[in-house]
Every structure is written in C-alpha cells, then in structure tokens.
Design brief:
Blueprint: H1 3-21, H2 30-37, H3 41-48, H4 56-65, H5 72-83, E1 86-88, H6 89-92, H7 97-109, E2 113-118, H8 129-143, H9 149-159, E3 169-175, H10 176-180, H11 186-199, E4 205-210, E5 224-227, E6 231-235, E7 239-243, H12 246-262, E8 264-265, H13 266-278
Parallel strand pairs: 2-3, 3-4
Antiparallel strand pairs: 1-7, 2-5, 4-8, 5-6, 6-7
Helix pairs in contact: 1-5, 2-3, 4-5, 7-9, 8-9, 11-13
C-alpha cells in the first residue's frame, strides 16, 4: 500500500477519533461508540488507527453517533481524496466486471490521446471478444466476483469504437512476451494475433513492440495507461492505482518514453507479431 495512501487513511482515523472524544454529546470511549453503532469495538479501533478503510455508510453512522451529522461532507471528501488513488478490485468488482468496463468506456471516450504500456496481455482496446471473454472469466475466478462475462465483453467491445473516431490516437507499446501469453486457448490466441496484425498501420493506432531481446533500461514493471496527460491508471493484483498529480504523470511519461526507445514499429512490429503467430500450431 502506498505511503501517501496510508498516511491519508491515518489522517482520517485521527479525525474520527477527534469527533469521538470532542463531540457535543461528550467524550465517548471506543467501546461506548461501538455499542451505539452495533459494531465490534475492534472496528472502531481499526478505523481510528488507519488499519481499515471506512465505507461511506461508516462515516455517516460515525458522524450521527457522535452528534455531528454536519461533518459528513468533510469526511466523504477525505475518503474520496485517497480512495481515488487506490481502487481495490474487491470493491470495484462487487457488482461484476460490467460496471468497471463502463467506467473505462467513459474515461476513454473523454480522452483524445492514450499512451499505454502492456507487458502481460493484449490491450483491451484491441482484444477480440473471445480473448476478452477468457480474461474476464479468469479474473472473476481469482477475485471471487460475480460473473457477468457476456455483459462485460459487450461493453469492452463497445469501447473499441473509439479507435474509429477522428482525432483519437492510441500510442500502444507491448512487450513481446505479452504476445505469447497463454491466457486463453491457442486457437483464440491465434485469432487475437491475426487481429493485431490487422491494426498495424491504422491511422489512430501507433503500435510498438518491445522485442524479448531488446536492451531495457528499466524492468517491464506493471501495465499502465496515461490518459491525455491528466490521469495515470496502473494495475496491480489487488487494485488499480489512479494517479493525477503532475509529477507522477511526468514520471510515467518518462517510463513510457524509455520503453518506446526499445520498441520496433510498422513492418518490424508486424514481423515480430507474425513470428509469434507462426509459432502457434492450430
């Protein structure tokens, strides 16, 4: 968990403790507050010590129980401020993959230029429906989330209309290893690579492939998206990181630029993809 995120959670915990001990109803012990709320006392302790992230409902209940309902807006703002940085998959996928994909559709639709680094899978904007279907199924199994695969696939396919709109630009860098990733049956992967070969040269797609034998000045790290130099979204197993401060965005642009120096483009990129495609016997 990031230092900034944890610090913000601890600050919110200190504010909650302040409300408990300095409220107009008089000082409450942690046990007394827990009894009023119908919670375990350990939950009060975890929230105040920054060891658990409160929900919106938790904040409202806390404000009401301490006789200070007017502070709900402030508490929500604090929560939004640091939750926007780390969006756990557990919370995001509580209703399945479709809502997450719809959020992404809005983000991409509002963007003119994307800079993307993918080192493990084919970029969602270029996935076939069958490939996407296997990705959603495997992640739903991992996260133990509701399975709404077909709805999620339809939403992701809808997002690809962005590629055919004037003025849009996808600057995509892929590590060659992502082309080999057996995240789906071989016949699905073969069709996916055929799809990739077909997008090389599209006006709205600048596709670069970093060969496995390329000299890298940085480790491949995690995949990430930069949207119009206003937002970076990086993905990890537990969460997405949404980062919007200028210094961090500039850092990710430097990382992207470093990988761009090692990539091949145009016909050279096609040759790399075609070589991987020929290795698949279906």
């Amino acid at each position: 968990m990031s230092t900034d995120y944890q610090r913000a959670r601890e600050e919110l915990g200190r504010r909650l403790r302040e409300l408990r001990v300095e409220g107009p109803l008089g000082r409450l012990t942690g046990t007394q507050l827990a009894q009023r709320l119908g919670w375990q006392q350990s939950k009060v302790s975890k929230l105040e010590n920054g060891r658990q992230t409160p929900t919106d409902g938790d904040l409202r209940a806390w404000a009401d129980a301490t006789g200070q309902p007017a502070v709900v807006g402030e508490l929500r703002a604090r929560l939004k401020g640091f939750e926007s940085q780390i969006r756990s998959w557990r919370r995001q996928l509580a209703a399945g993959h479709r809502p997450v994909q719809e959020t992404w559709n809005t983000l991409v639709s509002d963007s003119q230029t994307l800079h993307v680094w993918e080192n493990s899978l084919i970029c969602g904007l270029l996935q076939t429906a069958d490939y996407a279907r296997h990705i959603f199924e495997s992640h739903a199994e991992l996260q133990k989330s509701p399975r709404d695969t077909e709805e999620a696939v339809r939403v992701r396919m809808k997002r690809q209309e962005w590629l055919y709109r004037p003025g849009k630009q996808l600057n995509l860098l892929m590590w060659e290893g992502a082309l080999y990733s057996r995240a789906c049956p071989l016949e699905v992967l073969a069709a996916q690579l055929d799809r990739l070969l077909g997008v090389v040269g599209m006006d709205t797609v600048n596709l670069g492939v970093v060969p496995l034998d390329a000299a890298l000045r940085l480790s491949p790290g995690n995949p990430f998206w930069i949207l119009d130099d206003r937002l970076v979204i990086a993905e990890d197993w537990h969460a997405e990181l949404w980062l919007d401060d200028a210094e961090t965005i500039a850092l990710y642009r430097r990382v992207w630029g470093t990988f761009a120096e090692a990539a091949v483009y145009g016909s050279d990129a096609q040759q790399v993809i075609a070589r991987v495609r020929r290795s698949i016997k279906v």
